[in-house]
Each structure stands twice: as structure tokens, then as C-alpha cells.
Amino acid sequence: MKIQKVGVVGCGLMGHGIVQIAAQGGCQVIALETEQSFLDKGLSRIDGSVKKLASKLVEKGKQSEEQAAAMVETTLANITGTTNRADLADCDLIVEAIVENLEAKTSLFAELGKLCKPETIFASNTSSFPIGEMAEASGRPSRFVGLHFFNPVQLMRLVEVVRTENTDEEVFNAARDFGTACGKTAVSCKDTPGFVVNRLLVPFMVQSLLMLERGDASREDIDAAMQLGCGHPMGPLTLTDYVGLDTTLYILQGWKERYPDEAAFEVPKILETMVAEGKLGRKSGEGFYKWDGDKKA
Ligand SMILES: NC(=O)c1ccc[n+]([C@@H]2O[C@H](COP(=O)([O-])OP(=O)(O)OC[C@H]3O[C@@H](n4cnc5c(N)ncnc54)[C@H](O)[C@@H]3O)[C@@H](O)[C@H]2O)c1
Question: Is 156 in the pocket of ligand 1 (CB under 6 A)?
Fold first, then answer.
């Protein structure tokens, strides 16, 4: 089973990147948004991103100007935008990248389940919800996987391909091959909270917050320790500022509710307090550090 026509639902931060890499990988892609203005914004981001990639390839001597121009033209020609769900009916694969809200996702999949041809494979890019719950809602649990890409999609080399107990082997293989065709390294994982990356990363961030809360070490020393002692590109508190304190809190609260006995999913008080104070990290200008746009102030 080869994926040739892909629908991507949501053309925001993650969705626009998924549309782009799928189109670069040679798929015909339909990008679906709720409103024309959101769609235009997503498509214009893709336009800028593909052109930037092309000029980098030329600059590095990896492609001639003609080759790069052809890459831009082919990629953009592979993409069609729409605000009409019915346009996704004959896709081989649909990747959902809408807001992290389980009800929004399950109702979308319930509708897509009725709308799409029986062979269509469904995938969610969720970071924190069980794939199995969306698979049930879609009415076709054997044709459902998680395809968890990372931000920024165009640059991060990993995709986690998540299978539930009901995922067909051929469906899993087709989804994994799609990830590879998009230029990513695919790792496979069961439908377990946080998959591989977030299951390890979020509790690591939590432990750094608990250390700060107890006064074990300063924020600068915690970050420097993990950068210089473990070779991490940024420390866990800076990382939490990047991810967003609110996003981190929502993920943890969701896990805690579902798995109340899992000690690794403890919600640090400091996180609740700072979110209540509007200190959300880089996006709000203050979290564990003060931010001036993308840089620490
Ligand atoms: N942001 C990250 O770093 C990151 C990383 C990995 C996975 N994710 C996951 O990816 C998903 C999307 O996150 P994001 O950061 O791109 O969000 P975002 O808010 O940037 O984009 C979501 C887009 O979906 C659109 N949308 C909402 N409902 C829709 C519907 N019913 N039909 C069509 N479009 C709809 C919105 O208009 C918006 O443009 C979430 O599930 C998130 O957990 C995010």
C-alpha cells in the first residue's frame, strides 16, 4: 500500500510543516483549514519556507539554481488548499494536526470516518492523547496510527509512528514508509502516554522544576548542569520556557487524570502558580527567564 494522496487537517504551526514535507516527498497534498484566512497564512508560511530551503541548498552547493527552482515549483504544485472537508474523501492518508483538544479530534475523526473511502488511513499528530480513543471514534480502529512529528517539522528528523492493539500491520508499514518518504527517521512505539520522546522529556522537565521549587539549585545552575554535563543543547528550564508552561501543565494534568498513580506525572506547584500568573514562557515574555522575542532578555 503506497501513500500518494495525503490530507492534512489544520495548517498551523505543525500542520503547515507536515503539508510541506509531504509535498517535498512527492505526495499530492490537500491542506484543510477552518477558515480561508488561516489557510492563506499556512500556505504563505510554506511558500516562504520552501524558498528559504531552496536558497540554502544553492548556497551550500547541493543544488544548482535550476534544480532548486524546480524543487520549489514541484513542491508548491503538489499542494492544494481547501476549507471543504469533502475534498479529503479519496485521500490515502489523513494526518490530523488541529488544536490539542480531545473532543475536537474525536468529533473530526467520527466525521472523517463516514466521509472517506474505506481504505483511507487516519493518523493523529497529538502529543498527549491516547491514539486508541480517536481510533475508536473514527469507526475504523484497524486503519489508525499516531504520526507524531516534532517542531519545527521541516528541521526535526524524527517521527514517532504509534500503533494501537488494533492497528493493522500493513497500515503501520504504510504510515512508517510515509514518514520515511517525508525525509524523517521513523521510530515505532505502542500507544503509551507521551510515546517515547515526551514520556522521557516531560518527567525530566518536571524534575528540574521540583529541584528549583525545593531550592536545590538555581535555575542557571540546573540549566548549565544539563548543558555541560550531558551535552543537551539547552537546559530543562529554558526548554520548558520554549515549550510553554501552559502546554506543559495541560499535558501533565491530562496524564495525571488518566494515570493518577504514576509518580513521574507529578504536577509541580510552581508550574501551576506561574501559569496562573500568566508566566507562560517565551511566548508571554516571561517564564523561568525573561524573554525578548526569541532571545533571553
Ligand atoms: N506545537 C508543537 O510543538 C507540537 C509538537 C508536536 C505535536 N503537536 C501537536 O500538533 C497538533 C497541532 O498543534 P499546533 O501547535 O500546530 O497548533 P496550532 O494551533 O498552531 O494549529 C492548529 C490549526 O488547526 C486548525 N483547526 C482547528 N480545528 C480544525 C478543524 N476542525 N479543521 C481544520 N482545521 C482546524 C486551526 O485553525 C489552526 O490553524 C496538536 O495536537 C499538538 O499537540 C504540537
Answer: no
Q: Is 297 among the domain residues?
A: no
Take residue 135 and report the three cell numbers written for it: 481510533
49, 154 in Cβ contact below 8 A? yes
pLDDT at 1 over 90: no
On whether both 39 and 150 belong to a single domain, the answer is yes
Give me the domain span that covers residue 112.
5-190
Provide the 10 A C-beta neighbour count for residue 38.
Answer: 16
Across the chain, where does the E strand assignment appear?
5-9, 28-32, 79-82, 93-96, 121-124, 144-149, 158-163, 185-190, 291-292, 295-296
Average predicted confidence (pLDDT) for the chain? 97
- Mean pLDDT, residues 276-293 taken together: 96
Which residue in 96, 124, 125, 160 is the catalytic one? 160
Amino acid at 98: I
- Answer whether 126 contacts ligand 1 (Cβ < 6 A): yes
Same domain, yes or no: 36 and 159: yes
Q: Which of 128, 148, 208, 286 is catalytic?
A: 148
For ligand 1, atom 25, name the residue with the nearest CA.
Answer: 10
In single-letter form, the type of residue at position 118 comes to: P
Q: How confident is the model at residue 294 (pLDDT cuts 50, 70, 90)?
A: confident
Give CA torsion, residues 174, 176, 179, 183, to 10 deg: -110
- Predicted TM-score of the model (pTM): 0.94
Q: Is residue 34 within 6 Å of ligand 1 at its C-beta?
A: yes
Confidence of residue 225 (pLDDT cuts 50, 70, 90): very high
Q: Are residues 63 and 159 in the same domain?
A: yes
Distances (CA, A) of 110 to 39, 102, 124, 170: 23, 12, 13, 22
How many domains does the chain fold into? 2
